[in-house]
Structures are given as C-alpha cells and as structure tokens.
Amino acid sequence: MQALNSLHTPEEKLAALCKKYADLLEESRCRQKRLKALQKKQAQIVKEKIHLQAEHSKAILARSKLESLCREQQRHNKTLKEENAQRSREYDEQRKEAMLYFQTTLSDIEAQMEQHSSRNTELRQENMELVEKLKKLIEQYELREEHMDKVFKHKALQQQLMDAKLQRITEMMKEVEEKQQMERDVLLKDATDSRRKCEQMREQETQLKQQLSLYMDKFEEFQTTLAKSNEVFTTFRQEMEKMTKKIKKLEKETTQWRTKWESNNQALLQMAEEKTLRDGHFKALQGKLELLERLCRALQKERNDLNNRLSVLQEQGPEEPPAAQPEEPSTQEEPQDEEGTGLEIHEAPRPPETEHTADPTQD
C-alpha cells in the first residue's frame, strides 16, 4: 500500500499491482511444481519404506531360522560329545577289564610256574639223594666183595690148616651166601624202586612240558586278543579323529553363520538408524509443507483481495483509491514474514496424509 501510495496515476498503480500479481503467480506455480516433485518423491520414499519393511521382515525370518539352526547344531554337538564320552568310558572299562584279566592270568601262570619249579627242585634233590644212596650201596657192595675175596683167599690158604673146621666154614659160607642173596635181593628191589621213581619223574616232566605248551598256547591266544584290542583301539582312535574333524567343520560353519548373523544385525541397526533419521526428516518436511500451505492460502487470500480491489477500482474509474484499511498490511506482511523465514526444501519422504490436503490450485 505504501508503494501504491507513492505512485501518482491509477494506471501506474494497476501496472504495479499486475506486476505484483504476476510475480505472485510465478511463485505459486514454482511452489506447485515443487509440491508435485515432493509428492512424487514422497511416493517413491513410501515405496522404498514398504520395500525396506518387507526386507526387514525377511531378515527377521532369516534371523529366527539361523537361531533355530544354531540351537539344533548346539544340541547335535552336545549329543556328539556325550556319545564320545560314553564310548571313551566304555573303552576305558573294557581296557581295565582286559588288563585285570591279563594280570590275573599272568599271576596264575607265575604261581603255577613257581609251583612246578619247586616240584622240579624237590624231584631233583630226591634224584640226587637216590643217586648218592645207590653210589654208597655200590661202594659197600664192592667193599664187601673185596672183603669176601680176601676172606676166600685167606680160607684157601688156611684150608690145609682148618680141615676139621671145614664143615663149619661151609655152613658159615652158606649163611653168608644166603645173607648176600638177601642183600642182593634188597639192593635189586631198591634199584627197581629207584627206576620206577625215575620213570615217574620222567612222566611228570612230560606232563609239565605239556602243561607248559598249553600255557604257551594260552599266552599266544592272549597276545592275539591283545593285538585285536589294539586294532579296535586304533579304529576307535580313527573314528575319534574323524569326529573331531567333523566337529571342527561344524564349528567353522557356526562361526560363519554367526558372522553372517552379526552382519545382518548391523545392517538392521543401520536400517533402523536410517529409518529414525528419515522419520525426523519427514517430520521436518511435514512442518515445512504446512508452512507452504499456509503461505499458499495467504497468497490466495491476498489474490482475492487484490481482485476485489481491482474490480472496485475499475468501477470507480479515475477516482482516487479509498484509504488503506488497517487489516490489509497485516495480510501482506504475513506472507512476507513467512517468505522471509528462509525455508530450505529438502528431498525427503512425505506421509500419505498430505496427499489429501487441499490443493491451492483448486482455490
């Protein structure tokens, strides 16, 4: 109004008003274009939001599946560890039983060997004693024979002197011969007994040798069983190594799944942060859109007022314009203040509620 008052002719005032009206139309058109671009961007951002929500739901499903797989893998690892522990315990028990059986058999064999060795020593001592007795008997017999020879020689020498005592001597000789026969019989019996004892000892030796062969066979069988047990132990150790390799592979896979799960969690956190930032930006854009709508409404009111004034001026003709009302500068100052706020329009999402707002072009 001050600018119009500064002008003198109504034509200049109309030209200034038209110029102002044209500027306002251009500004409103630019703002409408910006609003349409913002609406398009808002629709794209809404689509991106829906797509991100779908991806978020997919990521949550994958996360739940990964957690279930991790739990199943942990259960499988626990069962494998328990089975390995049970197998190791059973193998330790079998090994202990085999060692106890081996020790008992060895102790029995040693005790039997000691008994047989003691019997052999006793039999050897008895054989030595019998041999010594036989030697003594032979020596006595030889001494007696020598003595008898001497006696016969002495008797032969004294035959001539002892004819009278011949009968007595013959009788004595008969008695001596009978005694010798008796002694010979006794010695023969002792010899036969000693031979029988020697044969019995030989038979016992053969029996002991047979027993030793049996014990050797049993010892060889025990060695074969030990070899088999060692083979079983080697096979079990190989199986344990295979199981450890499988467990290592499963641990590697779990680490890979964990890394993937952590990366997914980080991606989800980043998406959540981006969502919060976009929500804040979206709220700021809503406030700016509300300010723009207020400006558009103010401009529309100002345009209507100007149209009314133009119609009034056209009706009055060359007459002077009426005095400025006090309400008009306030309506003109409001858009200036709102335009002077220096709003920065950023490209950000717009909620679907703003699509239903009144379009300034319709007014």
Automatic annotation (TrEMBL):
GO biological process per UniProt: regulation of cell cycle
Biased composition (Basic and acidic residues): 344-363
GO molecular function, one term: syntaxin binding
Pfam families: Taxilin
Region (Disordered): 312-363
InterPro entries with a match to the protein in the record: Taxilin_fam
Signal sequence region: none
Compositionally skewed regions (Acidic residues) per UniProt: 330-341
PANTHER family named among the record's database cross-references: GAMMA-TAXILIN, TAXILIN
Protein family: Belongs to the taxilin family.
Protein's name according to its UniProt entry: Taxilin gamma
